[in-house]
């Protein structure tokens, strides 16, 4: 008799374990499916360099010189909105372009397009989930709360360039007097600032569904 009880007990325990496994794996599947369904992605930038003489950072979406680099995506977003990232904030004050060099050959656009000037400054917040912002105005307000009036979220197209700008050509006063020649750049740009380089930052892009928030 005791042997039978033990066998029954083991049998019941096995069923319980099977049930338990089925339940927990179903929960896992359901959990990951609902996560995938709500998986929205946002665009991020990272700092590539800092030029001490001018106090400027070079920040951008993708480091084209590194074939194994992070594959940023300004069309669909590249980072899960539930991830915590710093917000890249910006404030423009019409600062003229410092005489940094425009290097490289460019790509679809001339080299200057990819190293435009923001006419101002950047800074980063502490990491925050992109999904915590309902719309762009909320991200702008977050930047203003951190750094003061006039600060807003940095955007993909904050860099401005003048064709043939390079070194002192279209820098300082000649940048300002030729402001009417400014064109909008993209992918990366120079700006006053010295932000951290150990984490990617949320940035905003207009006209593309690549933000964690509504436009
Ligand atoms: C900018 O000037 C530097 C230094 O003279 C030069 O090496 C570089 O090729 C120039 N850039 C462009 C796009 O012409
Ligand atoms: C561009 O700037 C230079 C230097 O200030 C100036 O001599 C020139 O007239 C400007 N060009 C235009 C089209 O404003």
UniProtKB/TrEMBL annotation:
Would you indicate the residue range of the signal peptide?
1-20
What keywords appear on the UniProt entry? Signal
Asked whether the keyword Signal is assigned, the reply is: yes
The identity of this protein, by name, is Uncharacterized protein
The organism encoding this protein is Rotaria magnacalcarata
Q: What is the lineage of its organism?
A: Eukaryota, Metazoa, Spiralia, Gnathifera, Rotifera
């Amino acid at each position: 008799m005791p042997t039978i009880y033990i066998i029954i007990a083991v049998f019941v325990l096995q069923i319980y374990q099977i049930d338990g496994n089925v339940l927990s794996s179903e929960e896992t599947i359901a959990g990951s499916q609902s996560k995938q369904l709500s998986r929205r992605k946002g665009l991020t930038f990272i700092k590539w360099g800092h030029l001490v003489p001018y106090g400027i950072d070079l920040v951008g979406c993708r480091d084209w010189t590194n074939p194994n680099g992070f594959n940023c995506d300004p069309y669909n977003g590249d980072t899960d909105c539930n991830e915590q990232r710093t917000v890249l904030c910006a404030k423009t004050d019409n600062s003229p372009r410092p005489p940094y060099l425009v290097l490289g050959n460019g790509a679809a656009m001339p080299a200057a397009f990819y190293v435009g000037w923001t006419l101002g400054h950047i800074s980063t917040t502490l990491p925050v989930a992109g999904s915590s912002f309902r719309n762009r105005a909320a991200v702008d307000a977050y930047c203003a709360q951190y750094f003061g009036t006039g600060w807003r979220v940095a955007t993909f197209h904050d860099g401005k360039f003048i064709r043939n700008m390079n070194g002192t050509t279209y820098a300082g006063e000649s940048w300002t007097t030729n402001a009417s020649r400014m064109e909008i750049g993209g992918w990366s740009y120079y700006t006053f600032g010295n932000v951290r380089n150990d984490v990617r930052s949320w940035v905003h892009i207009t006209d593309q569904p690549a933000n964690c928030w509504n436009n």
